[in-house]
Specification:
The complex is a heterodimer. Chain A is mainly alpha-helical. Chain A is built from seven helices and four strands. Chain A has one domain. In chain A, strand 2 and strand 3 form a beta hairpin. In chain A, strands 1-4 form a two-stranded antiparallel ribbon. A two-stranded antiparallel sheet of chain A has the order 2-3. Chain B has one domain. Helices cover 88% and strands 0% of the residues of chain B. The chains are: A mainly alpha, B mainly alpha. The interface between A and B is large, with 53 and 41 residues.
């Protein structure tokens, strides 16, 4: 009943490359399962190309429209270049989060290294695209328009710091949400077992059980919400790269 | 609950693993390696296959709906045209029918008028003939009255006097009476 145990990574197939341990683990397994499910929904689902979509095609279409709408609204038509990237991020996080809610499943996004990698991908893309598209004008991002010149010495450092802390908040938000949610679930589910094994106390066991059910529902919402937030922030940051000095 | 945790992880791991798995750097290479593989695959499959295909479905649906709407409006226009043509034909037919009816009515009226005149004329002719006949009959009857009167007078004279009356005298007397 260790609530941390569920985050343990265990090797399934041992593999070493260039002196690194890159074994196929339970984490890798759930990444592959997430990939397989996304491919099933998006590629098998869109195969019929039906005028009136079936269930799977509807899911594929709704996902496409949802993310496309988010990118278009937040980053504009120019942001649609990054639509596949944002879409892959959103789907990967969403499927990893939801898969993690299945009992005994592993939550890929509950590991900081994964969320940091994704946040850094976004961060580096923003810097690269920002400079490639705007050159040094990208630095206007740190100079908010309409601010009196004598405030700038205070504002610019704040803007710079907030820019560089973006990947931190971006990655830790997702990681911490997943971690905390799963620990809560595990702890309350643990109470059920504890009470069941405690003789008369077993009568009280339905209460933490019902609470666990409620938390699971909440976690399902959080699973979607965090994927949405991550993708949304990605769009916002990309918008900065595409249109600096407009926020 | 905390006590068995440490012993368990220590016993299970054997190697120097921290108690908190997300901070265990030993698992980072594997996670990064597999994440890279999975994410690159995902990105390629989504950007090359899935998203263009779903976008294609939207495009196809849009063009199909636009085409259907165009067709519908074209058909609507055709229907309007047909309705207008029908209205026009109907109005023409009604006008012609009215013309024909008027003509027929006029013709019938003229015919009946002519027949009435004809009838009138024949009736007038018959009336005139009848009047002439009556006139003739009356004159002849009036003429006969003289003879009858004379004969009656002669007969009366014969009965009363017992003598044969002079016919001419009687006739003169009758004529004198009639004139008087």
């Amino acid at each position: 009943m260790n609530p941390i145990e569920q985050f343990q990574i265990t090797k399934l197939v041992s593999l070493h490359l260039f002196g690194y341990d890159v074994s196929f683990t339970n984490s890798s397994l759930f990444m592959v399962i997430a990939l397989a499910l996304i491919v099933l929904v998006m590629i098998a689902g869109s195969r019929p190309r039906a005028l009136v979509p079936g269930r799977l095609q509807s899911i594929a279409e709704v996902s496409h429209e949802f993310v496309a709408g988010m990118v278009r609204q937040t980053a504009g038509e120019a942001g649609m270049r990054f639509f596949p990237f944002v879409f892959s991020l959103f789907m990967f996080i969403f499927f990893a989060n939801v898969l993690g809610l299945i009992p005994y499943a592993f939550t890929v996004t509950s590991h900081l290294i994964i969320t940091v990698t994704m946040a850094l991908m976004v961060f580096l893309t923003v810097i690269f695209v920002g400079f490639a598209k705007n050159g040094l004008h990208f630095l206007r991002l740190f100079v908010p328009p309409g601010v009196p010149w004598w405030i700038l010495p205070f504002v610019v450092p704040i803007e710079v710091i907030s820019f560089f802390t973006r990947p931190v908040s971006h990655s830790i938000r997702l990681f911490a949400n997943m971690l905390a949610g799963h620990i809560t679930l595990q702890v309350f589910a643990g109470f059920v077992l504890l009470l069941l094994g405690g003789g008369v106390w077993a009568l009280l066991s339905p209460f933490p059980f019902l609470f666990t059910v409620a938390v699971l529902a909440l976690e399902l919402l959080v699973a979607f919400l965090q994927a949405y937030v991550f993708a949304m922030l990605t769009c916002l940051y990309l918008n900065d790269a595409l249109h600096p000095g407009q926020h | 609950m905390a006590q068995p945790v440490t012993t368990e992880t220590k016993a299970e791991a054997g190697r120097e693993e921290p108690a908190f798995p997300p901070f265990n750097t030993a698992t980072f290479p594997s996670q990064l390696f597999w994440f890279a593989i999975v994410f690159i695959l995902l990105y390629l499959l989504m950007s090359r296959v899935a998203l263009p295909r779903v976008g294609g479905i939207f495009e196809f649906r849009k063009t199909r709906i636009a085409r259907d709407l165009d067709q519908a409006s074209a058909m609507q226009r055709q229907a309007d045209e047909a309705a207008a043509a029908y209205e026009k034909t109907l109005a023409e037919a009604r006008a012609r029918a009215q013309g024909v009816a008027q003509e027929t009515r006029d013709k019938l009226a003229a015919e009946s008028e002519a027949r009435r005149k004809e009838l009138d004329a024949s009736l007038n002719a018959k009336l005139a003939a009848a009047e002439a006949q009556i006139e003739a009959m009356r004159t002849s009857a009036l003429a006969n009255v003289d003879t009858i009167a004379s004969e009656a007078a002669a007969a009366i004279i014969q009965q009363i006097t017992g003598k044969t009356a002079n016919a001419e005298a009687v006739a003169q007397a009758v004529a004198a009476l009639k004139a008087g």
